[in-house]
Amino acid sequence: MKLTKDDVRQLAATRGWVIVRRCPSCGHERWRPVLRAERDCCLAQCGACDFVFLNPRPPKLDDDSGYDADHADQLIPRLVNTGLLAEDLTPNADRMRQRYAKLIELTELLAPDEPVVDIGCGIGTSTLALRSQGIRAAGLEIDPNFVEAAQERLGVDVQLGDVQQPQPQRAAVATLNSVLEHIDEPVPFLEAIRRNVLHPAGALVVTVPNLASTEFVHHGTKWTIISPKHVSYFTEATLQSTAERAGFTVEHTWAPPATPRPGDPVELWTRIGLGHQGNVTGGIGMVLRNR
Ligand SMILES: [Zn+2]
Question: What is the whole-number distance in angstroms between the Cα of residue 137 and the centre of ligand 1?
Answer without folding.
Answer: 34
